[in-house]
Amino acid sequence: MSAMGRGSGQTPERVVELVREEVSRIGQNATARAIGIPLRSVQKYMDGTAEPTRATLEKLSAYSGLAIGWLLNDGITGKHGGLDFNLVPEDELPKVTCARCGGGLKVVSALYEDLHVEPCETCLEERVKQCLANRES
Fold first, then answer.
1. Among the listed residues 88, 87, 93, the one whose alpha carbon sits nearest the alpha carbon of residue 117
2. Thinking of the domain 13-71, which architecture would CATH place it in?
């Protein structure tokens, strides 16, 4: 799926889905009021025939808790922000090394400014051995 919006004149697929879900849950008028957009915009987004403005995307994001990049299906933004490293090509992943041994670490996710990595194999093995030794004593 490619990102719609940004000049396409169409509603991005994830925006269509979000608006349709809310309309089925609370109705068109309540959805328009809750998000803070005109009823006609809700109707156009449901039909996929209008491109939301940046201000509208910000309202949709604030209302739903979903990241604007994810709503636009930009291909790298996680549902709630940050980068989804499952979507980033391997050669574009950040290079991170273990502060303890200098070994390479695999980035598994990043949300906002928090970077989450898997421990390197060497340090993980040492940590397991240390835990087992602590249990035995």
1. 93
2. Orthogonal Bundle (1.10)
Exposed, middle or buried: residue 18 (CB in 10 Å: 0-12, 13-18, 19+)?
Answer: buried
Contact 82/108 with Cβ under 8 angstroms? no
Is this prediction's pTM over 0.85?
no
Amino acid residing at 20? R
Q: Are 80 and 68 in contact (CB under 8 A)?
A: no
Distance, in Å, from the CA atom of 13 to the CA atom of 32, rounded to the nearest integer, reads: 18
Give the C-alpha separation, 6 to 69, whole Å: 11
**Residue 67 in contact with residue 111, Cβ under 8 Å?**
no
Q: What are the angstrom distances between the C-alpha of 37 and each of 32, 40, 119?
A: 5, 8, 46
| Range from 61-70, 79-88, 104-113 that averages highest in pLDDT | 61-70
Task: Judge whether residue 69 has pLDDT over 60.
Answer: yes
Q: Give the pLDDT of residue 86.
A: 64
pLDDT tens, residue by residue, 4-30: 445 678 999 999 999 999 999 999 999
Domain boundaries along the sequence of the chain: 13-71, 90-136
